[in-house]
Amino acid sequence: MKSIIREALILFAITAVAGVLLAVVNEVTKEPIEQQKVLAVENACREVFPEAENFVPMELPADADAALLADYPKDSVEAVYSAEDADGNALGVVLNMCSKEGYGGTIRFGMGISEDGGLKGVSILETSETPGLGLQAADVLAPQFKDRKAESFVYVKGGGASAENEVDAISSATITTKAFVNGVNAGLEFYRENYSK
Description:
Elements: H1 2-48, E1 54-58, H2 66-71, E2 75-84, E3 90-102, E4 105-114, E5 119-127, H3 137-141, E6 154-156, E7 166-168, H4 174-194
Parallel strand pairs: 6-7
Antiparallel strand pairs: 1-2, 2-3, 3-4, 4-5
């Protein structure tokens, strides 16, 4: 009986020390992790809108996702930034998008849209797509959207994209391609409904 109590007390002490250590590590790493997330978003903004000097957070419209639900039910806008030059003049916006229809789950990316509705670029912030296939989105898909203007985009298989609104699908990763293209189209629609002049 005494050995059971002693072993229980030892186990309790080990658990308590481990819990305290985890809490300390969490508290120590919380701020650096948040700073890295902010830096990643800022770098993505600069990547998709390189001529902008400042990116000012904007408030999302109250019904931001309501308009997207009909056409893009698995896509949402998570944040909007006003892309401004050094004098504070608006050049366009950067949208942080989230698509929940990727093969491996959620795909988060930023997209820059100029005031005339042209797409400046797209940068992937986070993805859990299949290594070797879906993870190619940053290298294969994102560059295809740079400095393009279209009402919406479509993907084509087999490398035959030739029209302004066409992008080449990633070979053997059409689910990732579809999720990414739908996310971009959702962002363009959101821009037209909320910020287009």
